[in-house]
Amino acid sequence: MEVKRRKDVAQIKKDIARNTKELFAQKGYGATSMEDICTINNRSKGSIYYHFKSKEELFMYLIKLNNEDWMNEWLEKEELYKTAIEKLYGLSDHYVDDMANPLNHAINEFVSGQIVSKEMMDEMLSLIRIPYATYERIISEGIEAGELKQGNPQDMMHIIYGLFSGLSTLYFEKDLDEIRRLYHIGISSLLTGIEQR
Question: How confident is the model over 148-173, as pLDDT tens digits?
Answer without folding.
Answer: 999 999 999 999 999 998 998 888 89
